[in-house]
């Protein structure tokens, strides 16, 4: 079932979840919670959201290529590069990185999911709808607009932009080389794009301590689905359509890894991703961030340092004891 939007003057989405999402919610035992949380989903962009967007530097877009493969793409710019034209239309003054399929994808498949994330505040918003790439920029007509909680977002400080330099063409292969495997195995953040045939494209964030993503083979990785907002947008899409795109960003070098393939969700909510293609682009963005602290919501945070060098922040921010962490791991997934 596709999501059904209310008339624009009502602002809300009448049926926010499709069958795949509802199935995953039921499997986790959080249907009632999900219905309550789903009321945050709107079909318009509020003035407050517009002001927040005007300060952002980073977004992740999900699109489909003509073969139905899902791709997650990095978009960056100066403050103001994302703006609300009106209450349903976003404009992004940004071009995808060299060799990125985003523009070609939108020429044949209009579905566009957008995640706007601020590593400095742990804020994030999602916008799902239809997109258009033109000489005037990238546009998104939003059907769904909603914020997400700050869980698992590592706090990062914005550094000076790197000097401008030509971006090389991506290096394309069907397997992860040892360096790429090490990059993924040590990542604390990645982004995932998924797609539902009626509900459209979606972009989401995943975070944890380094090592939460496991490389099980040169063409396979796995990762746990941590407790989230109970809506199961990502896993619900995967239940219906296994195609997915992953994006890994090295915030210190500007390098990017884009993976496309198929994913399946295990009984324990661990996701296994089988790779079809990987694209590595060096110096893909001038944007730089410096890690300040890991999220205190990361599983195991009460037993290890949240900051890279000390545990001091835990005493003032973490209220999760081991027993509660273990309880929460059974429900409330994104």
Overall description:
This protein is α+β, with helices and mostly antiparallel strands and about 325 residues long. It has a single domain, classed as Pnp Oxidase, Chain A (Roll). Helices cover about 20% and strands about 35% of the residues. The chain contains eight helices and 19 strands. The strands form four sheets. Strands 11, 12, 13, 14, 15, 16, 17 and 18 form an eight-stranded antiparallel β-sheet that branches. Helix 1 crosses helix 6. The longest helix is centred in the first third of the chain and has 10 residues, at about 20-30. The chain starts with a strand and ends in a 6-residue tail after the last helix.
Features:
single chain, eight-stranded antiparallel β-sheet, disordered C terminus, 8 helices, alpha+beta
CATH architecture: Roll
**Rg to the nearest angstrom?**
19 Å
Largest sheet: 8 strands, antiparallel
CATH superfamily: Electron Transport, Fmn-binding Protein, Chain A
Fraction of helical residues: 10-25%
CATH fold label? Pnp Oxidase, Chain A
| Name of the level-1 CATH class | Mainly Beta
The tally of domains stands at 1
The structure class reads alpha+beta
Kindly report how far apart the N and C termini lie. 19 Å
Summarize the structure.
By secondary structure, the chain is α+β, with helices and mostly antiparallel strands. It has helices spanning 19-28, 31-37, 47-53, 102-108, 178-185, 233-240, 312-317, 322-328; strands at 4-5, 13-15, 58-64, 70-76, 82-84, 89-92, 111-118, 123-134, 137-147, 155-158, 171-173, 189-196, 200-207, 214-217, 220-224, 243-249, 256-265, 270-281, 289-293.
